[in-house]
């Protein structure tokens, strides 16, 4: 009921820009430009956790972009999912550029799962909702894509808000797994891990570990995993190392 009421409220209540608060628009042109107006770029956190896939992000996590992401994730501004999905679609395109195209299947967007308690508290799963919007945008542009939510938490994890990069990695180590039968669903497509935000990279590294472990058990030719996110810290955009 909670999620349903948010959907209805988003249609009938007056709206303001999710980035700057400008009235009568869900997202103004200036904030939209900040979110998806530039080409997605590779991002690398420091320190970089072992096993982190190659990650591309649409925008730095600051100012209007931060407000839009928090509005969607924490304040139930579900109408922003389309714009966020557009930004994620751009990051997915950048992530798969240069990847082998031998697989005949579609792009498989695999969202990093939120904790079940967080989904209950928010009334929705932000990363999955944005992934669905991104897949829709990709299909409308002629790119076969679908969401494959095959990752789940196998144990409880602590809230990560106040944890350091090292503590986040330890908190998430071994926390994710692929659902039964999920590995078979991945065959024949190109998997791209997706999330709304990358901070330390610990969540994406753990998701890549779980996905790769399942593919190896099935003797599936997984190749290099790539990932795409809507946003990442500004410093992640300027760190380039060999």
Automatic annotation (TrEMBL):
InterPro entries linked: ComF/GntX_DNA_util-trans, PRTase-like, PRTase_dom
CDD domains: PRTases_typeI (cd06223)
Family: Belongs to the ComF/GntX family.
PANTHER family linked to this entry: DNA UTILIZATION PROTEIN YHGH
Protein name in UniProt: ComF family protein
